[in-house]
Amino acid sequence: MTGDEIGDTIMLAIDNLIAANPAATRGQIFRAMGQGLLNSGFTSGFDWFWGETSVDASAARATIDFSLHRNISVLVSVVNTEFIFATAPLYTTHVQVRIVQCTTGGMNVIFPSGIKWAAGLSPGLIMAPDTISFVSFFYAAGVYYGMYGTDFS
109-110 and 143-152 as β-strands: parallel, antiparallel, unpaired? Predict the structure, then answer.
């Protein structure tokens, strides 16, 4: 099934849920839609929306495919780990990367060029051992707009 066919199927499901439940909240609709997708065998779509996957960064490179998952976790264990956004999301959406420093800390991350960062500043990640940083992106029309939070320890 192509991305457009999946999108059409999802939009039809949303329209049907709204018509059948006019008083339902958006949260109720999305939970019902997610369960409907899961029951219909769309586990990859369900995982993409709600799941998280881990990316191996042991070779100083973390290849991230946002078409498969929108929540990515990366354990950074190599100095100057380069993030490569291999495949963009299929639709305009928010995506997130959780960056976990290894037990020794001191590992830096290099983001792809072309990201438009809040205030024009790329993240200065806290590199202490075992700290966690979150980098969130809004993706639209081929552009990633990034913002971040650091030092969740």
Answer: unpaired
Q: How many domains does the chain have?
A: 2
Task: Give which of 89, 6, 78 is closest to 40, Cα–Cα.
Answer: 6
Domain carrying residue 124: 52-152
Burial class (CB in 10 A: 0-12, 13-18, 19+), 124: exposed
Query: Do 61 and 129 sit in the same domain of this protein?
Result: yes
Same domain, 75 and 143: yes
Q: Which among 76, 94, 77 is positioned nearest to 135, based on CA atoms?
A: 94
Tens digits of per-residue pLDDT, 63-122? 888 877 778 888 888 778 889 898 888 778 888 998 888 888 888 889 999 999 989 988
With H, G, I as helix, E, B as strand and everything else as coil, classify residue 51.
coil
16 and 64 co-located in one domain: no
